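Task: sequence in, structure out. Protein: DUF4738 domain-containing protein.
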Amino acid sequence: MIKWGAISMVLVMMLASCNGAKDGETSGREDLTAKKLLQGIWLDDETDIPLMRINGDTIYYIDPQNLPVYFKVVRDTIYVRGNTPTAYKIDRQTEYSFWFHSLSDEIVKLHKSDNPGDTLAFSSQETEITPSIQEIIKKDSVVVYKGTRYRGYVYINPSQMKVIKTAYSEEGISMDNVYYDNVIHICVYEGRNQLYGKDITKKMFANIFPEEELNQTILADMNFMGVDEKGYHYEATLQIPESSVYHLVSLTIDSDKQLHIKMVE
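Result:
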C-alpha cells in the first residue's frame, strides 16, 4: 500500500530538476567571477531575513537541519549539487543583488547583508540530525495456530545510519535534511524455544524499491502479523521522514527459515 499525498508533484520536480542539472552543469565552463560575487550572507528582499551564506563553493542555509551543498555557476544558471541535483536560472546578479527562478517558477529576490551581526544566524557549523525514535521500542504479540502458541517480538532500535531527504521550501528551493534510520530485530518463539531471529535493515528491501526512492525512506515500524502454513509473517513500514508517505512490505519466514520479502498489494 502506498500513500502519496502531495509527494507526486515533488517527485516530478525532483526528476526534472535532476536531469536538467546533470546535463547543464557539464555543458560549459564555470563562471568564477559570478561565484566570487555570491560570497557572503544573502537576505530575502521582502523580509530582510537571512536565507543562506555562501563561502567558497558551498551554500549554508539558516536552518541547522539543512545540509550544506556544493554549487557552481555556468552561464546564466546556478547548479546545486545536493542529494537531488538542482538548477536555478539566474535573473539578475550584481555585487549586492541576486535574483533567481525557483523550481516553482517564482523569482526569489535576495540582497547581500552589510550587517556583521547576521553572521550569528550561521554560527553553528554542525548539521542537526533528527532521530526517528529516541530509544528502543519493544512490541510483542501472541497468536495460536493449530493449537500451538507462538509469540512474535519486535525491537525497533535507533541507529547512526543517515537518511538524506530532499525537501522544498514554500519558494520552491530544494534543501536536504538528515535523519537517523532504524534497525529492527524480529524473533519468533514457541515457549522458550526461539524459532527465528534476525536484524532487519532498509538495505534488505533494495530488490523491490528503486534506489532513489529507498534512499529517502526510514525503516519506521514492524508488526508481527501471525502464523499459517506458509510460515511466520511480519509487516514492515518504510516511511519518508516527516510526511504521510509510506510503503508496507510483507516479510514471510518459511519452514526452512528463509526470509521472503514483497510489497503489500
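The chain has two domains: 7-122, 130-263.
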